[in-house]
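Thread: pyridoxal-5'-phosphate complex, take 2
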Amino acid sequence: MTADIEPAAPGLNAWIERGRLAAEREEGARATARTRRFDTIAVHGVYDHLAAADNQGAIIEPAYLAPAQHFADSDNLEAALGYLMPAWGYTRIANPTTHYLEETLALLEAYGTDLTAATVVTGSGMAAVHLATNALLAIDPARPGATPNLVASAKCYGGTFMLFSRYAVERGIGLRWVSDPLDAAAWAAAIDEDTRFLYAEVPSNPALAMADIPALAAHAHAHGIPLVIDSTVATPALLRPLGLGADIVIHSLSKAIGSSGLAIAGAVTARRDIPARVGPDDLRADFATHLKLLPARDLGASLSPAAALALLSDLRTLRTRMDAWSRSTMTVARYLSGHASVDTVWYPGLEAHPGHALAARDFSLADGDAEGRPATRYGNLLSFTLRGGLPAARRAFDRLGLVFRATDLGRVKSIAAIPSISTHQQQGEAGRAIAAVDAGLIRLSIGGEHPDDLGADLAQALEG
Ligand SMILES: Cc1ncc(COP(=O)(O)O)c(C=O)c1O
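Output below.
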């Protein structure tokens, strides 16, 4: 959103007024988008006919690759850089293309609720985890000498495990792992007056562990702190944590949202007026915008506009992809569950999964199935172990002929990984024990192939 046409009268106030009108116009586009269905929002976001008119009529959001914006005069420059009017200024701070992505993500994350949300996108999912959590771990001048701590589910992505461990080692931040995120008493016992946030992945990578988001939100809010949920694996097409009480949602956009694999990216989305024990007031009032205008600008892990455009393109088909891929994944999960060489399959859609009841309660395909009937879908990630442990897992993994072997997930192409020797290698055996990452676990991300072909590839791999 910009207001970069010269105003009728010169001067700082004229630019501020022009900015107010541009912001009002975009609020109108947001309000209209909120009346629409998930797919329509995913396709259009706030890029409406008026926005197109500002962009040479282009029907697709243009990629603004320029690093900086030209200003009409010094008043325009001062108003823009003082954040007194909407402008983009410099691509590390903001950019029109990344702005369209942020607006669409915020609308999708708040879909089906009356919440207002905002999003800041980042150069990777880890940059999003860092940006959001680092801001909440600031020193509290009201409690000099106190050591902030965080309470997190240990069943999380290895990079997040390592980042939080780094906070502890490098900055002395208290790190309180909850090894079973379904254990409500463990969360409650870990919180004290210096806890800054609760953190969980729902569902987790690679164990597909669930957490009770409304119950965790109630615990967090009783202590005046936010609940942060990494919802990368589910995507807003299947799970919308803000509507369940979470305050902040993290995504690695590198995964199912950006399934074509053209970009590494992340996002932090937050509702308005979050509880937090650290300020400033702007942080509580609009966390994502605060992150964008100050810490993200200074930390510098911004997203490239070319990547933002690639992500916008993938995002348009998110719901239908997650619907189809979830159904294929259920087929594969059932196939693996019935295979003689397979020991355990972890997939929230299976009744035997410890988090199945929660997943059945909280997951819902936005707007339901093709006939508009309510539909529960469980996502496109599963994990399994073989009776022969890690050696058998390596054998089957090495025999895969269609499924790619890579440390990736959410991709249009199916991908397998062995987390204990890849994504979760560096956290060590003790770290994997708290996170319950079995040495022989194979993580399987199902993409757009026909499930018959995936079944055939798995069948020949498991024969070896
Ligand atoms: C659940 C989850 N969160 C965050 C990340 C980090 O994302 P990125 O690789 O985009 O930095 C990953 C990466 O696999 C992930 O699986």
